[in-house]
Batch of 2 targets.
Target 1
Amino acid sequence: MNKINWNFDNTYSTLPESFISKTSPVPVKSPELVLFNYNLAKELGLDFSLTDKKDLSKLFSGNLLPKGSNAIAQAYAGHQFGHFTMLGDGRAILIGEHLSKNNERFDIQFKGSGKTPFSRNGDGRAALGPMLREYIISEAMHALKIPTTRSLSVVTTGEDVIRENILKGAILTRVASSHLRVGTFQFAAFRKKENELKTLIDYTINRHYQNIKKSKNQALDLLKVLIEKQTSLVVNWMRVGFIHGVMNTDNMAISGETIDYGPCAFMDTYDPQTVFSSIDQLGRYAYFNQPSITKWNLARFAECLLPHIESNKDKAIEIATEVINSFDKNYEIKWINMMRDKLGLFGENSKDHVLILDLLTWMHKNKADYTNTFCFLMNENVKNNKIYKNEDFLIWKKRWEDRLKLNNSDPKKTLNLMKSVNPLVIPRNHRVEEALESANSNDLSLVKKLIKVLEKPYEKIGENVDYQSPAPFDAKDYKTFCGT
Ligand code: AMP
Ligand code: MG
């Protein structure tokens, strides 16, 4: 095989033994590459231009491990739907950390590569549909300028996986700036070995947040940094109508990237209570609950750090509580500024909040499409735009136009601001399903087309128009499933 430029430097394996289980991917029968992200490979400084499909299939199924890799499964814990559990990579294997040319570090992880000591009753495998879904949506999130893990490839295994039906097995290669999670800290805290937790804090700061390396209270600053990162992340989700669906603490990354694309989906009709996940029966992870769940998860993170924030427990709780409670105000400010951007509003006006809420209430009442309402305000051609002739909407629009006058700036600038935050296309549920269905019948053309359309969500491209319409059925009926 020619030179690919892998440059592995596997630091996670130097952590205490309890964090890691050395586990190799279980070889698969007949791997076949179905998707490969050449753009991402290039960003990573990897050159696969001379690697043929057969070798790519072997590499990205784990049948042939690259030189310098060191396969491990990571241990972690987590609150799943509020309940604490010991977990770990049950069907994912980290093959190593690759350093790009400018020394950026990336985890290269296989998802669906066989059993590990953390598999519990699972088979360690993944099905083609959910892996393609993760590829499509994670790459769409990246294009939407939202921090996320990336997808490098999908390979079918030539083996069946048994779920409710018999499905095609597949392996996704996930690229992340790390797989450290709130759950990793919960794992360390639960073991009550102070030195392990300290090692994890040091490792995390060294890997992600070197700017707080010299700080007087590193644990407290780490908490503050994560609050900042996760607040920005959830505001971004709210901006585009993304519903993660399974915001368990093991699915909250310390890097601030969106991780774990199981039952996630995008909201079309605006309804703050939207839930797509079939297992989220109480709506714990509904669209409008996402900020408060983020705060709840951050509080679990804070609990882990307490002994390192301050040796006096009561004092530590007091300090951490104050910091956690800063979330609400911080979120509110970030959220309203994000909504101002969506509406092209410069500066601040005391009536902005009401103006924004009134639009959302109107959308909810009239079952308007969230994405397309902003497209309409940007004068983008939206099909089925009869709804925007509604009298209440026109009254609201007049108020908005009056507010725009206070911008005191070139209308072009207003439009450019709106265009930079309001996507024209999102991964519409029916488009994702349609693509996955045809992939199941061995036709990947729709998956590839969808990926292409989602590459430039903020740009007007003729062929994208068909991808702007919401589902022809009531979005409430759409259900997603955890990708097991
Ligand atoms: P998730 O809901 O994807 O965050 O997964 C929760 C936990 O279940 C993680 O520890 C996964 O590794 C594990 N898991 C999910 N699917 C499987 C599977 N098919 N086999 C083994 N473990 C799994
Ligand atoms: Mg997970």
Target 2
Amino acid sequence: MDRQAPVFVAGHRGMVGSAIVRALERAGHEHILTAPRASLDLLDQAAVRHWFEVNKPRYVFLAAARVGGIHANDTLPADFIYQNLVIETNVIEAAWRAGVERLLFLGSSCIYPRMATQPMSEEALLTGALEPTNEPYAVAKIAGVKLCESFNRQHGTDFRSVMPTNLYGPGDNFDLEGSHVIPALLRKFHEARCGNAPSVAVWGSGKPRREFLHVDDAAEACRFVMALGPATYRAHTTPMCSHLNVGCGTDVTIAELARTIGDVVGYEGEIRFDANKPDGAPRKLLDVSRLKAMGWQARIGLEEGLREVYEWYRASEGGR
Ligand code: GFB
């Protein structure tokens, strides 16, 4: 990637987008373009086309999305499918129209079938039924992958896709209703410790397994994939299976995660499992061999990452 060239990070205020901006700054990029929602509504096609015509980015990281945990996905299906479809169609089509050299679309590991063989390889896409709690979001993200592939096949664009596993890190959403499991449990255990609560409620059975990747690792993977030469990228993907899994290659049960978070926070009370809440997919471990063969792998271990995010949370949101 040319460090002087304009690079647009769509969704720069989110956890992933802000991590990508930090990774680009660390790598010496001098022309990073961002657009706050107040000045560019990605749901407005005319506005997006106009912004691209005026700003002419050479590279685009499409990290903007409507995201949330299992409860948000399960209760707001129309928001999740509509907003993610519109954002990706607007940005990908405008990028083609404006002659963007390279775009990276960010999906999610939930695009794979609920009962896919574990670990899930890129070829597992569209081979079975999706997890009901996040099917609308998954369908939107699958459409994003297919949008990139279709523009590449018809128009000769170089639009790439990465499918990160469950991400966590600074700038995450700590709202207890809409968040993912790690920020939710960090906050719950923190508040239980500060309030001397006798127990903490963890949703579901605690049996599902999840793979977790620190968002700074994910951002470095995004920069790595964007920097690959077209021949290298094409040598490790196919025109109809062009996406790359991004993960750490190991997973833990939610119960093990809860115990680790309890240790990180220093909470010594009881962990209770709320069977009235959904478990979601039983497991979502990614096969990361494709990206590993290209030379990238995760560096930040889960406990190290959790400690760092907990400190960020206490300094920025947790207060005490
Ligand atoms: O992180 P999470 O909401 O998303 O839930 P998914 C992961 C697991 O943690 C589920 C359990 O089995 C939850 O029941 N869990 C336990 C909790 N306690 C809590 C809690 O307090 N809050 C939350 N949120 N979970 C998401 C998809 O699925 O994965 C998204 O819905 C996206 O669309 C994301 O794909 C990466 O991993 O189940």
